[in-house]
UniProtKB/TrEMBL annotation:
This is Iron-sulfur cluster repair protein ScdA.
Length: 100
């Protein structure tokens, strides 16, 4: 299996769930964690670029750099729900697959 297909497999597996969870987490936790609104925008941009690229490798380096900075390398805050944690775990997995 090539690294290229690994990102695509992770994308196919996780993007539908991220598309469902991210807006809900933003609505529920956005007041206490305003940085998550930026996470939401970046996730939307990543999904849009990746989906537009099809099976080609999109250029997502800038988005992942920003995402890591905003999320403190996907560190889950203490006062959030399991869905927030799941989003950060999925984003870390997508990021790792993209970097490989």
């Amino acid at each position: 299996m090539s690294n290229h297909s690994t990102f695509n497999e992770v994308k196919e597996a996780l993007f539908p769930t991220l598309a469902q969870y991210v807006p809900i987490v933003a609505r529920v936790h956005g007041k206490n964690h305003p940085e998550f609104h930026e996470v939401h925008k970046l996730v939307d941009a990543i999904m849009e670029k990746a989906n537009a690229a099809g099976t080609e490798r999109p250029d997502l380096n800038a988005e992942f750099i920003q995402l890591r900075a905003i999320s403190n390398d996907y560190t889950v805050p203490d006062d959030v729900c399991e869905s927030y944690e799941a989003v950060y775990n999925m984003l870390a997995e997508v990021d790792a697959a993209y970097q490989n």
